[in-house]
Amino acid sequence: MSKTDFLNLCRQVTGAxxxxxxxxxxxxxxxxWRQRIRGKALAAIRPGSTxxxxxxxxxxxxxxxxxxxQGGNTGLVYGSIPDHQGNAVVLSLxxxxxxxxxDIDNETITAEAGCLLAQVQQAAAxxxxxxxxxxxxxxxxxxxxxxxxxxxxxxxxxxxxARELCLGLEVVTANGDIWHxxxxxxxxxxGYDLKNLYIGAEGTLGIITAATLKLFPxxxxxxxxxxxxxxxxxxxxxxxAAKNYLGPTLTGFELISxxxxxxxxxHFPQLRHPFRQTAPYYVxxxxxxxxxxxxxxxxxxxxxxKESDQNQLQDAVVAESRRQAQTLWNLRENISMAQAAExxxxxxxxxxxxxxxxxxxxxxxxxxHRHFSGCRIVCFxxxxxxxxxxxxxxxxxxxxxxxxxxxxxxxxIVHDQVHRxxxxxxxxxxxxxxxxxxxxxxxxxxxxxxxxxxxxxxxPHNLMNPGKVL
Length: 470
Description:
By secondary structure, the chain is an alpha+beta fold. The protein is built from 16 helices and 19 strands. It has four domains: 3-92, Uridine Diphospho-n-acetylenolpyruvylglucosamine Reductase, domain 2, CATH 3.30.43; 99-217, Uridine Diphospho-n-acetylenolpyruvylglucosamine Reductase, domain 3 (2-Layer Sandwich), CATH 3.30.465; 221-336, Alpha-Beta Plaits (2-Layer Sandwich), CATH 3.30.70.2190; 343-430, 2-Layer Sandwich (Alpha-Beta Plaits). The strands form four sheets. Strands 12, 13, 14, 15, 16, 17, 18 and 19 form an eight-stranded antiparallel beta sheet that branches. Strand 18 (376-382) and strand 19 form a beta hairpin. Helix 8 (232-246) packs across helix 10 (293-309), helix 9 crosses helix 12 (335-342) and helix 13 (357-371) runs antiparallel to helix 15. It starts with a helix and ends in a 12-residue tail after the last helix.
């Protein structure tokens, strides 16, 4: 039987209009959103239910057709697009957008994999609850993609990443069976925690089709402050003071270098510098409280006063409204777009122990400037949980294309430094194809062997997102 037979059988499952084969329409599914690379697909298939996903997977097994699960296609490591062989199908889950259940008393929401993150956030908010996963791409990324990559974001400090927000999964396994694991239980000690095999696996073990997620009481008040500091050491001091003084109300702690802020102001001229004088670093700090706005603001102002008295703060701006708070967050959330507008750059999504962040920045900055004079370091990210986006832009008046030829050497310096500090070269973006070879330098042979054993056991024909992660 031929690939034509395969596609015809797929059309019988989903309907003919949901099996896309024409070149122009396929481009959306074959290209990653930054348009840096493009693969080649046999087809893009858009199932509308879990049962249809299972039937398509069984057909892929029968015909030995590789498949690439795809959600919002907002990833940064090329994990949701096919290779260049043209043998794989892209399995888009974007039609599966049903909120299946909202259990207020159990504080859970069950959503299909194609639901946008913003859709789930809004459904929770409409019920007076909070789903706290928060990403810049929340208007386009999907729940399935969030879980497949174990997404992080800006609220990990308080609520954890996607893995910690998930209680149960529905998964189509590599052989086309459906695992109905949508339990809304906080405690279930009955053997291996299977859901955690699939979370963060980037679709290489099975396809997440729905998830039961944790909700939280919506906070009554929130306060946002942008603080100006001299060094990352001062930022670490502020973080520890904030944890001790604010406790669980501290929800966000983002480190921003002055160069990041200058890029944003250059490429987003509608935004304004919040301070009269620049500082080497800034921290965007946010708290969420179940007390009154006045109570929350009072605690935050007390903290700032104490830190100012100890000469840890150079200046601070406290948002007096939600609009002002969003303006401050815009300075943080537009860094990646500003860097892209500045030119081609080399990205690193790294994590080191929070206590090591100041030393990592100081030592790695010095190494890069020694070897690549004039390179511009775009350092920002989730300092509260140890995750930095440590990106490198070309020196001014240097071609981005020429600079990218140094990528392997720059990666080696940065990743070796991360390893030296007992960190990770991928904190929240995953491995995809971009880092699957690089990770072999840093994971032990035992770790790799365990991962390969799991992959071979669950996907013996290597049809589930082949060439990714391993």
